[in-house]
Design a protein that fits this description.
There is one protein chain. By secondary structure, the chain is mainly alpha-helical. The protein is built from 4 helices and 2 strands; from the N terminus they run H-H-H-E-E-H. The radius of gyration is 19 Å and the shape is elongated. The protein starts with a helix and ends with a helix. The N terminus is likely disordered.
């Protein structure tokens, strides 16, 4: 394993936070932008980056679904809908 491979560890989706995945993705992008990464390592980093991108996208979709609902005082969720007057 090379130094660059050991410095960029990709966690599994289950224990990965959005912020953690973004930090790892940014480290991979920075490493790839250095232009001194061997082709095989660049491909491996790209694949890891795509996996991290997928994790970030899934976490954002999950939050978006949660934001589409309103939690009522009784603990039930209802879909969030804007009234026409609120749309402007």
């Amino acid at each position: 394993m090379t130094d660059s491979q050991s410095s960029i560890e990709v966690s599994t989706e289950e224990n990965q936070t959005f912020e953690g995945a973004m930090a790892e993705l940014e480290a991979i992008v920075k490493k790839l932008e250095e232009n001194d990464v061997p082709l095989e390592e660049a491909i491996a980093l790209f694949q890891k980056g795509m996996g991290l991108s997928k994790i970030c996208h899934q976490k954002l979709q999950k939050v978006e679904k949660q934001m589409d609902q309103i939690l009522h005082e009784d603990g039930t969720f209802q879909p969030f809908k804007l009234e026409e007057d609120e749309l402007g």
